[in-house]
Amino acid sequence: MTKILSQEEIDSLLTSVSSGEGTDIQPKRGGGKVSLYDFKRPNLISKDQMRLLENIHEGLARNFGVYLSAQLRMIVDMNLLAIDQIMYSEFVMSIVSPGAIYVGEFSSPPSKFVLEVSPQLVVFIVERLFGGKGHLIPMVRQISVIEQRIMNRVVERIAFEISKNWEPLSKFTTDVGRFESNPEFVQIVSASEPVIVVSMEAKIHNNTSMMNICYPYRWISTILSSPDIQEKVLFGASEGTDEERKSMMRSVSVTPVNLRAVLGKGQISIDDFLNLSAGDVILLDGRTRDKVSVFAENRLVYTGTMGQANQNNAIRIHNVITGDEGHEKRRLQHKVK
Between the CA of residue 269 and those of 127, 272, 273, what are the distances in Å? Predict the structure, then answer.
């Protein structure tokens, strides 16, 4: 039943409201963080797959930057800016006309991709290859036929770096065969189909220029959804084969290692150290009959005794130090007394 308030209760409520008294109503605070999700554009690439793509294209940017630095005889810093998932129509509309657009093909699985290079960067590269100083033009202009042919060699190198950096996941060949200046004439997938756009930045003389690679999502999904790649993503690289282990052991077995024997330690003052001269003797804390510590690349691995062999100073190995024992002895050896 609904409770009927008396006149005294009504007067008390009116008094508390007019005086500002009463309990403050606080909004309920949620414990979790709210993140926006667009159901029209779901995230098709997982975080693990995104890390794979970042590793691939960071290596691509680094290798291509080294190539450009050698060809242009100047420092070119290439960096990976972002990897975005957008619709193909959005990518086409983002390209300024006239542009420098190259359409390429992958052999396996067969698919097309788009390489979009800033026209300012194309003109700069061509001028430097012809021996000029090179400058980034402020205005966008049409790329001439001669500039296109000169630039083909650089674009072929980009195509080579793409297939090389994708090789750990999938082996394929890359061919770039068509140049377009108008983005409306470039149609590798339907306008509503999702694509993955990789944006890279070239820094030259404190000036920046852009280069974009557009992959169809279907092509990337075909590679990343294979069982072998999924196993690498979820569980890391599989255990090496016997042949790989033997090859690694052969490489390690011929690697030179520096051995260093510590005969003893001594302490002197700074004043004595500054006044040392030829012929002075420093007293060590060890004896000739005591065991000496043998280090391999600053890691304690053996203990032995000093001696001579074929009129050369030598050390006879007595013990092999491994595991926690080696760590503890190493700590004691480096402890300052």
Answer: 64, 5, 6
Neighbour-count burial of 116, counting CB atoms closer than 10 A to its CB (0-12 exposed, 13-18 middle, 19+ buried):
buried
Can you tell me the distance from the alpha carbon of 106 to that of 255, in angstroms, rounded to the nearest whole number?
Answer: 40
- Between the alpha carbon of residue 174 and those of residues 163, 292, 327, the distances in Å are 6, 60, 51
Better pLDDT: 228 or 285: 285
What is the pTM assigned to this prediction? 0.59
pLDDT given at position 165: 92
For the chain, list the domains and their CATH numbers: 47-238 (3.40.1550.10), 256-275+282-333 (2.30.330.10)
